[in-house]
Fold this sequence. Notes:
This protein is of the alpha/beta class and 173 residues long. Helix content is 36%, strand content 26%. It is elongated and about 55 Å long. The mean pLDDT is 93.
Amino acid sequence: MSRLHECSNCGEMAPIRHGMHRYDESGLSNVVLQGVGIAECGKCGNSDLILPRLAKIHQAIAAALANSPGRLTGEQLRFLRKHLGLSGDELGHYLHTDKTKISKWERGEDRIGPSNDRLIRLLAAALDKEMRSRVSAIAEHLPQISDDQGKNWELHVDVVALTTTFVAVSRAA
């Protein structure tokens, strides 16, 4: 028996299928959700994404970013900062820098240095009550972080099991 969802555009009932979705709405260009509900309206062509456990999904993404194989990108830093509920000023206070520097990192105008990258990961784990128990595992992972920014992989998130996997991708030049 197929479940139905009311289209947010026209109100028509649309069947829900489960599939993959590039989760650009998160502000991250390299996150793919697996097993997500998608209602595609046959009447107006609209697609609605159904994410019933959004906070848990974001928690899984934040934990994965703290353990990512490459240096953090600006958009990943922005995701972590917002996930923690910090302003640019507040994050700057922890890192002994100002919001202008944080903003430049987030916009990709300046690269996050390796020391700040590692401090941001530990800070995220320490400030997030769900990640606190993983601080030592994150610390043990720090020497394995590649100097390449995390642009050569995608983060796949199984929205049912809330598991994450990094998948290497090749980018055309």
